[in-house]
Amino acid sequence: MYRWSAPPEGTDVCAISDVPTGGAIVVAVGTQRTEIVVVRDADGARGFVNICPHTPLPLNIDSRIYSHENEVHCDHHFATFRFSDGLCTAGACPGEALTLVPLAIEGDRLKIAAKTAE
Ligand code: FES
Asked: What is the DSSP code (8-state) at residue 104?
């Protein structure tokens, strides 16, 4: 299993307006430049570690990340993951999920939030 170290609480991620509603972006965060997939739907924005649960690779091959109908897609074997919880709904790893990155809104910015209990 891939282990991920969260950037410190309060680390700036991006402006909320950087993420189109119904879309997704990849942001390199903190001093380690940790890649986070930030998605946004009508319920708000969520972050996920940019590592596919099928094979530990970033979801995107180039600078853009593909999303459609509130799901983000992996470029490698075309798994799709729900914006709402990162669950794989089709493709190579059904039932597995992206790792959630807790985000908080501060003004017009998204920041790394305190880690929630597991
Ligand atoms: S690496 Fe993402 S679907 Fe295989």
From this structure: E
What is the number of domains present in the chain?
A: 1
Query: In this predicted model, what pLDDT tens digit does every residue of 95-107 receive, in sequence order?
Result: 999 999 999 999 9
Alpha-carbon separation of residue 33 from 22, 68, 85, 90 (angstroms): 25, 26, 23, 29
Is residue 69 in a domain? yes
Task: Say whether 95 sits in a helix, a strand or coil.
Answer: coil
pTM of the model: 0.93
Q: Is residue 5 part of a domain?
A: no
Residue bearing the CA closest to ligand 1, atom 4: 77
Which residues line the pocket of ligand 1, CB cutoff 6 A?
A: 52, 54-55, 57, 74, 76-77, 79, 91-92
Q: Is residue 105 part of a domain?
A: yes
User: By residue range, what is the domain housing residue 47?
Assistant: 12-112
Main-chain phi, psi angles of 18, to 5 degrees: -70, -20
Q: How far is the CA of 43 from the centre of ligand 1 (A)?
A: 26
Residue 50, domain member (yes or no)? yes
